[in-house]
Every structure is written in C-alpha cells, then in structure tokens.
Write a structure and sequence with these properties.
This protein is an alpha+beta fold and about 190 residues long. The chain is about 30% helix and about 30% strand. It is built from five helices and ten strands. Strands 3, 4, 5, 6, 7, 8, 9 and 10 form an eight-stranded mixed beta sheet that branches. It has a two-stranded antiparallel ribbon with strand order 1-2. It starts with a strand and ends with a helix.
Length: about 190
C-alpha cells in the first residue's frame, strides 16, 4: 500500500501490474497480454471480451488453512472475488470488498503484504445473459484472525476451510492450484 498524508491507499492497476513479477511462462504471457489494458477506460467493464477482476485467497496463517467458496455458475470450488462495481478501479479494494461480501469476515487484511500474488487470464463460459469472455484475474492473499466467523453470503455458496493439500484436491482449476501453491510457500516461510 502507498501512504499519503498518513492514510494508506491501495496501488492502482498500472502500478500493481508494473510491480508484479510473473512466475513461469503462462503468467508471463498473461501479464504481457493485459498490461496494455491498465490504462484503458473500459479495463473493468464486464461488457468487454477481456476485462479485469480481483480476487483473494483468504488464509488463516496460524492454522495454515485457506477458505474456498462454491461458485454455482462455474460449478467449482474457487477463491472469493469478482468484478469491480461501477467507479471502482483499485484491485485490492475490490478484492477486500468481495471478500467481505462473500464471507462476512470483517477483519480481512492483505497478507503478508498488499502485493499481487498471481495474475491469471481465465476463460468464462457463456451464460444466458453474457457471451463467453475472459477475466484478467488479479489475485491477492487476505488474512483473517477470526476464521470461525466466516458465513456464506447465501446457502448456494458454501464456504470451507481447508489445508493447502485439501484445497488443491477440491478445486478443478489448474490456475487456482498455482495460487494455492504460492500461498503454501508463503505460509511455510519462516516468520
């Protein structure tokens, strides 16, 4: 986070992408593909074929567990996150809002810092209201100290605390497995 006049501010999209160091060929290709979108007026517009979303893997460092959410439309266990609301342009703020809305956790904080953990361009199948498109998903880690207070936003979107290994088995998304592996390395790092 950037501090100005004593207040912490989330980095903007261009700054976040400029500071991020992709890992591996897939993320490098995705990073190169989306960097030019950072300055576009419609970078977050869900009506465009490729647009940004922000998500987070919620972690509870003391137990080394992560929180996954059942995503009805995708029919998969995924991290929390989604589209920016009109006027929202700060990725970390979007991930924090989505985390609160989808889990009810009020103490979410960037962990171990506010850096982007993973960038993945993911295909989204067509639905009755949207054509097929892609999300340039900006992924963060958010920590909670109150995992027992997690509550699903609705009964169709249950939440589950899992170890990294359990979460890797639960998800069908290879790009989320990569995010989980990165979280696991950070959780294993000496304090």
């Amino acid at each position: 986070m950037v501090t100005t006049g004593g207040a912490a501010q989330s980095p903007g999209l261009a700054e976040l992408l400029a500071d991020h160091r992709p890992q591996g060929p897939a993320e490098t290709a995705d990073h190169e593909r989306v960097c030019h979108l950072a300055g576009a007026a419609d970078a977050w517009d869900r009506g465009t074929p490729l647009h940004f979303t922000a998500s987070a893997l919620i972690v509870h460092p003391p137990t080394r567990r992560v929180l996954l959410r059942w995503h009805v439309r995708q029919q998969a266990w995924l991290q929390v996150g989604g589209h920016g609301d009109p006027g929202e342009t700060l990725p970390l703020d979007i991930a924090l809002r989505e985390g609160l809305e989808e889990t009810g956790l009020t103490d979410l904080t960037p962990w171990p810092d506010a850096a982007l953990v993973h960038l993945a361009v993911v295909p989204v199948p067509a639905s009755p209201v949207e054509p097929a498109h892609e999300h340039a998903d900006l992924r963060f880690l958010l920590a909670t100290g109150t995992p027992e207070q997690a509550r699903p936003e609705n009964p169709a979107a249950p939440l589950e605390w899992l170890t990294i290994a359990e979460a890797r088995q639960r998800t069908t998304e290879e790009n989320l497995r990569e995010t989980l592996d990165r979280a696991g390395r950070l959780l294993d790092a000496p304090a």
